């Protein structure tokens, strides 16, 4: 019995040693990957502040994995992946092509270092710069720049969970864009004041430095007729009070100059912006924007023979939390 126990322990030690060696071999394998983890939507969201000339830059991290520092120069080859988006669209949206992601046309981007990211010896991470010129792009569509690490005999791709690919979903932002709580915005049937409809949130997307758009009333972002119901909000110059709260006017018009849904503002429409200190973290700031809106619109697509006039009135609020210790604005904002 004693010999049996000893033999079993020796076998277990050999087995553990084998497992440890396997773990060690795996750990020290250098593999190349992007730092572009996909979110719940299957893509990696990137944010750039809107510039009047349309330009912007994004630095995509390229990583050498492993437990030891990179001891050699590596030229990682990167290319635009033209095959991935179609599979993503089919998986997420099936035949709803109006919801599909669109590949960013080549005229909107360039790569200053060509298709190579050079990682020097001694560094485990290097950034691959992408230059954008997005002037005139329609943010009613969802734009993706799909990149892939090409295979090469000089390095090993990290294929685990698609880490050799980066589906960069592009978001422009300005001071007023973002996700707003909208449950204080009431939508009534005509001039009726009973039983208002509400939606929990509204995304306000960039048009230019001082303008955003959102979808009117209860029209949601996955409705096939949503493009007809885009409300353009333009923010005027504000005045700051003694507490630093800025108040200014907003102008509401239809994004479509033909205005087929008869979007029209009424009453006093304005905004308030304030900066508050975080109660427990002094390096954090809360930038709060509240917009007060009143407008009419007509639903003429649900039943074209019987259009219905609606009235929206109330407020929407957004809080943008910013880490003042981080110099890069897109990284400092907690999206």
TrEMBL record:
It comes from the Bacteria. This is Domain of uncharacterized function (DUF1735). Gene3D superfamilies: hypothetical protein (bacova_03559) (2.60.40.1740), Uncharacterised protein PF14274, DUF4361 (2.40.128.440). The lineage of its organism: Bacteria, Pseudomonadati, Bacteroidota, Bacteroidia, Bacteroidales. Residues 164-316 form the BT-3044-like C-terminal domain. Residues 23-153 form the DUF4973 domain.
């Amino acid at each position: 019995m004693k010999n049996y126990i000893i033999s079993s322990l020796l076998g277990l030690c050999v087995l553990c040693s084998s497992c440890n060696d396997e773990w060690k071999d795996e750990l020290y394998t250098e593999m190349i990957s992007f730092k572009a983890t996909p979110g719940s939507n299957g893509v990696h969201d990137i944010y750039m502040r809107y510039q009047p000339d349309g330009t912007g830059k994004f630095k995509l991290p390229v990583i050498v994995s492993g437990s030891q520092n990179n001891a050699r120069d590596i030229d990682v080859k990167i290319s635009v992946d033209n095959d991935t988006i179609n599979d993503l669209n089919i998986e997420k949206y099936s035949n709803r092509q109006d919801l599909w992601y669109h590949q960013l046309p080549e005229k909107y981007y360039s790569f200053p270092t060509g298709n190579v990211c050079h990682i020097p010896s001694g560094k485990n991470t290097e950034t691959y710069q992408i230059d954008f010129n997005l002037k005139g792009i329609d943010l009613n569509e969802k734009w993706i720049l799909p990149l892939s690490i090409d295979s090469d005999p000089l390095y090993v791709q990290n294929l685990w969970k698609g880490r050799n690919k980066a589906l960069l979903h592009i978001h422009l932002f300005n001071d007023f864009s973002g996700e707003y709580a909208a449950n204080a915005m009431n939508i009534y049937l005509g001039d009726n004041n009973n039983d208002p409809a509400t939606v929990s949130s509204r995304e306000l997307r960039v048009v230019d430095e001082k303008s955003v758009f959102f979808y009117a009333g209860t029209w949601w972002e996955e409705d096939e007729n949503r493009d007809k119901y885009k409300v353009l909000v333009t923010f005027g110059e504000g005045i700051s009070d003694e507490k630093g709260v800025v108040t200014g006017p907003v102008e509401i018009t239809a994004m479509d100059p033909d205005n087929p849904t008869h979007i029209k503002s009424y009453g006093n429409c304005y905004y308030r912006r304030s900066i508050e200190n975080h109660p427990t973290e002094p390096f954090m700031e809360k930038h709060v924007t509240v917009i007060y809106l009143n407008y009419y619109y007509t639903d003429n697509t649900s039943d074209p023979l019987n259009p219905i006039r609606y009235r929206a009135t109330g407020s929407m609020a957004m809080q943008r939390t910013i880490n003042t210790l981080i110099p890069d604005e897109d990284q400092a904002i907690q999206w």
